[in-house]
Amino acid sequence: MSTTLTKSPGAPSATGKARRNRSLVDLVLRARELSIAAALAVLVIGTAVVNPRFLSEQGVKDIFLNASILALLAVGQTLVVVTRNIDLSVGSVVGLVAFVVGDVVSGTDRGLLPALAVGIGIGALCGVVNGLLISFLRVPALVVTLGMLYVIQGVDYYVAHGEQINAANVPQSILDLGNGGVLGVPYLPLITVVVMLAVGYYLRSYSSGREFYAIGSNPEAARLAGVPIRRRVFTAYLVSGVLAGLAGVLWLARFGTVVADNASGWELKVVSAVVVGGVAITGGVGTVYGAALGALLITTIGSALVVLKINAFWQDAITGLLLLLAISVDRVLALRVTRALKKRSRHHG
């Protein structure tokens, strides 16, 4: 005799609960990103009222050009941070790649493709070293990437020997990438947007992409569910390294003249952009779109301070304040989401 188990009409399925929980988290993320966009709009409008030249065609173009490299690095950093890790080596990778690539192509007829190959190759190598040490040897990410930062800086200074790369010696095809555009839109922001959309689509639409969030949300539960944690963490660092290598080539293309300490200190600026953009430093929450918005906000603050003739040193103070505020907001939102989920669970239990 068989027995059929029936579910009462009011009892939600596990899948339904997961979907509702996910929708609540998505709602919080969208609200966070909209608040960043609103703050950015207020900043731009307020600065433009004081100095209308802030919204001139060249002014807007400069903001997007300056933000594009930071946003590109923020996209790679997002992959790392959502897995409860951090990459402090990205700024030094950018500086090393910019100088080495500039040295390789200076005074030659080597074009853009060789430059990209060298730059992305160096970035990928740094990402592989970080990924292997952190994911397979289980060395703390903070220790590995901080050590990598100093190693790369030492190599960069050794290679540079106090010299610099001059824009006059860089092939025109590379300089055109940093200063040209299509239909009036510069290439650099277009490249960043394409990368951002591709990574964002992957994280949201593929099960392997969602596993990055599972690792950050609950590593033990992810392990029990069969998520290949080591492989995903390694991939995150590899992508971060590749994008840092690409950013180094774009740095050379944008500025032309390069010295050994380019992008020094940018690792903290990248982390700030990611956290301000709504990516929780504790992992599991955030999007590449929010991280890119955070990068744009931080860059716009710097440009606004220049236009308003305020000491640029205040930018660091404001960035630090935004970072503290973002972490505090993350904590408050996390507590509210947890309480809301508990109430829903009790209500439907």
TrEMBL record:
Compartments where located: Cell membrane
Name of protein: Autoinducer 2 import system permease protein LsrC
Major localization listed first in the record, in broad terms: membrane
Membrane topology: Multi-pass membrane protein
GO cellular component: plasma membrane
Molecular function, one GO term: transmembrane transporter activity
Protein purpose: Part of the ABC transporter complex LsrABCD involved in autoinducer 2 (AI-2) import. Probably responsible for the translocation of the substrate across the membrane.
Keyword vocabulary terms for this entry: Cell inner membrane, Cell membrane, Membrane, Transmembrane, Transmembrane helix, Transport
Residues annotated as transmembrane: 34-51, 63-82, 88-105, 112-133, 139-160, 181-203, 234-253, 274-307, 313-334
Domain of life: Bacteria
Subunit structure: The complex is composed of two ATP-binding proteins (LsrA), two transmembrane proteins (LsrC and LsrD) and a solute-binding protein (LsrB).
Keyword check for Membrane: yes
One Pfam family in the UniProt entry: BPD_transp_2
InterPro entries according to UniProt: ABC_transp_permease (IPR001851)
